[in-house]
Design a protein that fits this description.
This protein is mainly β and 100 residues long. It has a domain of 68 residues: Immunoglobulin-like (Sandwich), CATH 2.60.40. A six-stranded antiparallel β-sheet has the order 1-2-6-5-4-3, with no helix packed on it. A hairpin with a 3-residue loop joins strand 3 and strand 4. It starts with a helix and ends in a 14-residue tail after the last strand.
Amino acid sequence: MSFFLEVAKKLGLDKDKLFGGFSMINYNSEAIYIEGILGVLGIETDCISFKLKNGTTSIFGQQLYIFELNETAIVKGQIKKIEFEKYQSEVRKLPKGEKE
């Protein structure tokens, strides 16, 4: 069982219902470990962005680089800020009989 699943279980949280279905650890603003990423949206030395199940996260700083990337990611560098953006789900109903 993953560390994050164990923590969610102890706290009585449903990990799948947490924002974006991901988990993150900040190691003294020198490295970020992330589980639950779906892909990389952008890589720059001052910003690295990832696609999540229900949104995105961007890590800002200096001398940033992806140290490891598979089902998880490790970003190293001088971490200054982390931002999250949740996708807005929009349900659009078509008039009866109309096709998209």
